[in-house]
Amino acid sequence: MLEVLPETQEDMLAVRVSDELTNQDFDLYRELIRDRMKKYGSARLYYEMVNLSWVKPGVALENALFDLVHGREYDRVAMVGEKLWQELAAKIISPVKKKGVRYFSITEKEQAMRWVLEGR
């Protein structure tokens, strides 16, 4: 499930993902981040993962391709998670983002949000 957080503003998208991510969740995410990229030239992202149990492989691949195509249009990206595989995923995708990805543990989510907001 994808939830857009109230901290979303201007060029910054803040989302929380949980449970199982669907094609519809990723479609909404890509639409929201692409809109910011078009309007502002780049977009900041706060991406929080809580109780994330499953991402369908096809959906993950499609999202990875989106990241490859649009990676240079990302500004600061904070990924917040609670599992080792999430930290590893952040490290894997970091090179394709213009300013990389900074990983924070779930206990550091307030620090992560401040870091993304300060990027403006």
UniProtKB/TrEMBL annotation:
It comes from the Bacteria. InterPro entries: SpoIIAA-like, SpoIIAA-like_sf, STAS_dom_sf. It comes from Pontibacter locisalis. This is STAS/SEC14 domain-containing protein. It holds the Pfam family SpoIIAA-like.
